[in-house]
Amino acid sequence: MTAMLDFQWLAVAPELILIVTVSLVLLLDSWWPACPYVAGPVSLCGLTTALAAAVFSLPDLMAVMPWHGTGLRMSAATGLIAKITADDLSHFFTILLLSVGIMVTLIMLCETRENQDGAGAFALVLLANIGALVMAKGVDLLVIFLGWLTAHSAVSLAIGSRRNSARSGTAPALTHFLISVLVAGFFLYGIAFIYGATGFTSIAEISLELEKVDLIRNPYVLMGRALLLAGLGFSLALVPFHFWVSDVYDAAPTAITAFLAVAVKIAALAGFLRIFCGFGVGIDENGIFWILAVLTMTVGNLAALAQTSVRRLLAFSAIGHTGYMMVGIVAGGVPGWSAVLFYLITYAFTYLGAFGLVALCSWRSRISDDRILYTGLGLRYPLLGLMMALFMLSLAGLPPLGGFMGKLVVLRAAMNGGYVWLVVIALANNLVSLYYCLRLIAVLYRSGSDSDTIVQHSAPAASVVGMMAAGTIHSGICSAGYITWACAAVERLF
User: Fold this and answer.
1) What Cα–Cα distance (Å) separates residue 209 from each residue in 78, 82, 95?
2) What is the DSSP annotation of 292-308?
3) Which residue ranges make up each domain of the chain?
4) How far apart are CA 345 and CA 32, in angstroms?
5) φ, ψ for residue 221 (rounded to 5)?
6) Which of 44, 128, 259, 327 makes the best surface tag, with the fewest CB within 10 Å?
């Protein structure tokens, strides 16, 4: 009898590990409620183990394992597991999301003492990470929706978990929850319309059905597609679905804001690529995405000009950067998709580092984050000022940083695709972002300030800032490896 080892569970091993970790953290919270300092390290261990499992299950690594070619093989996936793919694209997003989850948890450790969030906050972030993973790896509309709902529900609860803090999270949590419920209805109706027109919820089967049957102008397909766009546009903060971002980002705990700005956006973009680039409906998709890219870039960057809050500035800047990602989607194909994935890497480095600095500066600080009171911070804390300036310059797209290379790759893909005017508009928007980023840097090094910012000496948050600064520089100078990884993640889909 030939030995057989069922490796299909490796496709969902990270999710299973995180489920076990969530259960353990909740048990700790039940047995030892006053000990968030144990829950944090346990969460980190679970995320790190899940990341190791994701790396272990990479197809290229599996091919060189000792059991390869010895009769031990992966059996065909069945049931729910078949709805979660294990292709190169899902591995890319899995590794990226778990890495972001580790960084967010480290930032949370900086805020735990001040806000007394407890172990429940760590469990919610883990649950949101599970939802993000399912959304990124799902190849069925219902599975993607399940991941979407889990991620946003957990984030809403995590936003409201802050206690004993001057900045209450109740209002933004309620705002995010109510909007999520509304958008969830749109998402479900979109799935229902697509199912009614094709009879399937699997993206691959929907694509085949649309090729066999003339559904170019089918109103159910068009309406379903529009509603799905609204659902994912909410997560991506695409204009006009961005209206909630500034208020929620401003009032939520810094770590949760970082998760919303980075992890949720990464997962939503994965779902966006699966759905909207996985099948077509015979309409001018790129025309719609072209308009969304222009509106999102322009509104985000122009709104950032008027902000006097670091959090709100980062919020609107993140909206603008979503517009740049849409430029890559418009370009399409391997060049466009790989450009978007590389852009996501540089985006994660920059924003996680920036929010890590915000966490360091706001803990036990007299700074009000409702106004830019970081005046002179770079003079009193030279290293922190240098790090913040580094992240701002990367956001502005200046060489040799990762932000520059991310924008360069995206715009080059669009130019090669013939979207000249889109590139021109993107460059004009980059000048706007350069202005408000340089303005913040000038504030950091302005003398004569009366502010007395107290910076928290938090090793976890400081490690995030340091690693993200190194990543921002490395992804700019040594971008070839990152771009190769991004290309490998998408080239087999074409």
Assistant:
1) 22, 19, 32
2) HHHHHHHHHHHHHHT--
3) 292-494
4) 37
5) -65, -45
6) 44
